[in-house]
């Protein structure tokens, strides 16, 4: 996550990624994906680019750069690129506009005027309990993209280990009781180190691990706009 000053406004660039469970270097792939997207978005904004002008082709090109770095890392490790397979959820959010893109599972959640929504429903792959990855064939067809000229009060990005806690699968909607306490606390505190410790303790607690044994990443941002 990075906040970039651009056009007189603070713009949030946020990513979460989850390496494939069977991939030997999944942690490397997910780190490269997030770092590259954040670097590409920062360069775009610092060069004078505007979020409202971002197109699918722009972010697909960023994903291509990330894929290139993953492939380079695979060559250095003398392994197949699938050993660095990773999902990706990303958001670039300014006060009055935003864009979002995703490949794989996990989700981006927004709140506006007190209402929560899911930007993209978690992707599933060809087989049960599978999904798409940045390293998948036909990246351009699998990547989802959306933009909006709106203000959002709250933003959450998370990996698939949190889906069963945060989403209603029958109605394909967010579960507000999961998010509300987090955002209330986030708005009320300035000690983010303590908040991060509390969040980590919650995500690694026994009740949560009983619900999901997958890796869990949760990124929260608030005060993007008045709720």
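-> sequence recovered:
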């Amino acid at each position: 996550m990075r906040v970039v000053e651009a056009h007189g406004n603070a713009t949030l660039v946020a990513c979460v990624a989850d390496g494939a469970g069977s991939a030997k270097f999944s942690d490397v792939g997910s780190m490269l994906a997030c770092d590259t997207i954040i670097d590409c978005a920062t360069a775009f904004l610092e060069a004078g680019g505007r979020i409202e002008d971002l197109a699918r082709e722009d972010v697909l090109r960023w994903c291509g750069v990330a894929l290139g770095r993953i492939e380079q890392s695979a060559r250095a490790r003398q392994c197949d690129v699938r050993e660095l397979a990773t999902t990706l959820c990303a958001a670039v959010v300014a006060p009055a506009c935003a864009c979002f893109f995703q490949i794989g599972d996990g989700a981006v959640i927004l709140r506006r005027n007190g209402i929560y929504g899911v930007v993209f429903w978690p992707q599933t792959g060809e087989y049960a309990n599978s999904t798409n990855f940045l390293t998948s064939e036909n990246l351009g067809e699998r990547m989802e993209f959306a933009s909006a000229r709106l203000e959002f009060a709250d933003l959450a990005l998370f990996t698939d280990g949190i889906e069963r806690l945060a989403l209603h699968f029958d109605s394909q909607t967010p579960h507000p009781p999961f998010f509300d306490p987090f955002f209330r606390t986030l708005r009320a505190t300035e000690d983010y180190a303590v908040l991060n410790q509390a969040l980590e303790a919650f995500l690694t607690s026994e009740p949560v691990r009983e619900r999901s044994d997958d890796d869990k990443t949760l990124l929260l941002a608030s005060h993007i706009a008045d709720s």
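The domain at 2-222 is CATH 3.60.40.10 (Phosphatase 2c; domain 1).
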